[in-house]
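Two records follow; treat each independently.
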Amino acid sequence: MARATLDALTYRYPGGAADALSNASLTVDGGLNVVAGPSGGGKSTLLRVFNGLVPHFHGGRVSGHARVAGLDVIATPTRRLARDVGFVFQDPELQAVYGTVDREVAFGPENEAVPAAEIPRRIGEALEAAGAAHLAGRTLRTLSGGERQRVAVASALASRPAVLVLDEPTSQLDDEGCEMVLATVRRLAGEGTTIVVSEHRLERLMDIATAFIEVDAGKVRALDPAAWNAPPQPVRLQPATTRHTEAWCVRVASVGFGGTPVLEDVDAGGCGGEVVALTGPNGGGKTTLLRLVGGLLAPTAGKVVRRPGRVAYLPQNPAALLHRPSVRDEVRFTLDRAGDGTETPEAILEELGLSASASRYPRDLSSGERQRAAAAAVLAGSPSLVLLDEPTRGMDARARDALIAVIARLRDRGAAVVLATHDVALRTAVADRVLSVAGGRVMECVK
């Protein structure tokens, strides 16, 4: 029996100018079902049908029919669907309930009235399967974005759902975490769990996919996984023609939280007109180093020096930046504060493919579109120092290429760029140098 079916399902968000899903008909069976398509095309909307967030939480207009695990989605409350459907959001920050890892993973089983004696075993198994066993006992606020993503996957696994829906589950994971999550996906699919995964980086999934679903402009199509071809890799940037003087340096610096060091004796620096990429495991300290370089964290020892000029910082969670009525207003706010009257918001919005979304409320955008909106908001004008934390999270190949072009332009204007990323294609395309951040140390490495 099919685990999920959609029959002529059409859905529009409240105030939406167009249907997010249009006359979608689909059958989802067991195994690994891969969902792909451009940013803003409707992938996350489709996934949220499976657990009833669309339409119950978001509201809006809906017609047609949807059934998941034998339940009528439109007629069944989300609390009931949650017993059979596990869900991992694109933004793990949005689904955390408790402040500690163990309590967070226990939340689902507790609400399903799993016997108390059984819950510790569920927690341990789920954390192990998600590659997060070492995070047991930690508080969520001390975790990196990738570590939070692992905990979110574990939280979904702890309920042992019949259908597991994962929205960009590996977008912030290091290679080890990615392999552990994918190994768990393979095992669960083989054991009979229906897996639905939305991803932009499909290389590691398509060889084991049993179904391939494309979502574009609200249209849903079932395709043959064997017919999928990997998109071309981004072209490596030509070296900058001009290398400027040192723009930032960290000298014998240490930094930590609550007396616990994260990085020690760091010696690193970068020049204007140069792109430095940070690589390393989840929780290794990449975000901490970016914040240290940008002045958002003070060193506990040593010193940090930056040349004068504006610092543009893109955090892992773009929603933290977006508070204005429209995407255009977000960009204009940056330009006004920077006193840059030579550039209009439309220039960078066009560069990043956001012209059609300029008047939209940023928090109504898809995750990939929000990422681009946040990038536009911080990169507008002429920043002196650019700090980007997982900047291609949620971006499709076209959006990544557009961001690469913006990075190149800023670099050629003399900006110093530092980015932390697990996106190997991005790092290969833009980095002049690569720093490994792991085990509390920062070291220069071969790209």
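The next record belongs to a different protein.
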Amino acid sequence: MNKVINFMAGMVLGTAVGASIAILLAPSSGDELRGKIHGEIQRVQDEMQLAAETRRAELERQLADLRAPRQSE
């Protein structure tokens, strides 16, 4: 039980130290970073929307082909 408590304490302390160092060494301000994150999220959403629209159109074409009457060979 003591080993688990020591491990958890070390993990919390390590997380705090790592977060502090990351904040101090961050190359951009919080506002800039939030803007970059927002822009990246928007880009990914746009790409996902385009991929979904493309796939939907492809599936609709395949469905139309399946529903079309077949000509005898």
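Discussion point: Residues 40 and 46 are 10 Å apart (CA to CA). How would you locate this feature using only the token line?
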